[in-house]
Amino acid sequence: MATVTAEIEEWQATYDVETWADLEQSLADSDLTSAELRDRRDVTTRWEENLEDCRLSKHALALYSDVEATRE
Q: How much is the average pLDDT of 42-61?
């Protein structure tokens, strides 16, 4: 999860946004070239995937903790 967090922080700095939604909103900027638009679309996809992976990992860790607690 640390790697995902670092990647998201890099995107926040690179694109001067705070959230995935902010980056997605920036796609409406008419000053962007087609290459920039493609790059931002790719990043929004990866950002979404990273958020989902983090959510699933946290859920799995919580379930594991619950299982371990019942064994004690």
A: 92
- Quote the DSSP letter at residue 29: -
CA distance 28 to 56: 30
Q: Is the pLDDT of residue 66 over 80?
A: no
CA distances from 23 to 28, 30, 50 (A): 10, 14, 14
Domain that holds residue 37: 2-71
Q: Are 50 and 4 in contact (CB under 8 A)?
A: yes
Counting the structural domains of the chain, the total is 1
Are the C-beta atoms of 23 and 47 separated by less than 8 Å? Answer: yes
Residue 2 CB neighbours (<10 A): 6
